[in-house]
Task: structure prediction
Amino acid sequence: MQRWTHRLRLPPNEGNKMRELASRGQLRASLLRWSLVTVPLILLLGIASSLIAGAGEANRWYAALLKPAFTPPGWLFPIVWTTLYVVMGIALAMILNARSARGRGLAITLFAVQLLLNLAWSPLFFAAHQVETALWVIALMLVSAATAAWLFHRIRRLAGWLMLPYLLWLCVAGALNYEIDRLNPDAETLVPAARKTQILL
Result:
C-alpha cells in the first residue's frame, strides 16, 4: 500500500513547478482585470479634463499667446497624452496587482495625487488662464510623479520604467509653461481678438 502511495506522489520539483505556473496564470489574469479598469479610467479622465478646459489650438486665448520656438505641433499633443495615459494605466495596474508589496499604499496615493494635479492643470491653464499658477502645479506634479515612479520601481521595476516617458514629457510641458509665462506677462488679462467674418454682398 505504501509502495502505491509513493508512486502517486509527484516529485517535489514537479509540484513546485505546477504551483508556480498556476500562480503566474492567476497573476496575469488579475493584472489584465486591473488594466481593464485603470487604462480606460485614466484615459477618460484625461480626455474629460481636456474637453472641459477647451485645450488645444482651437482655444482662441491659447492661439493668441506667444510661444517658444520648441513648441511641438498641435497635432502631437493628443497623441502623446493618449499614449502616456495608457502606459500610466498599465503601470498603476501592475502596482495594484502587487497586493502584498511593501510601500504599495503610499505609491498608489502619490500616483493619485499627481493624477489629480494633472487633471487640474488643463482647466487652470486653458480655461482660467492662470499661467503662473499652472507652472507651480506642474512642478508639484513632477515631484509627486517622480516619487511615485521611484516607489513603483521598488515594487515592480517595469512599472517604474513605464513612468519614465511621462516624467520626461512633464519636463517638456514645464519648460513650455515657463516660456509662455515669460513671453506673455499679460497672459491672465489677454483678450484675443474676435474672429472676423466676411459678408459678401
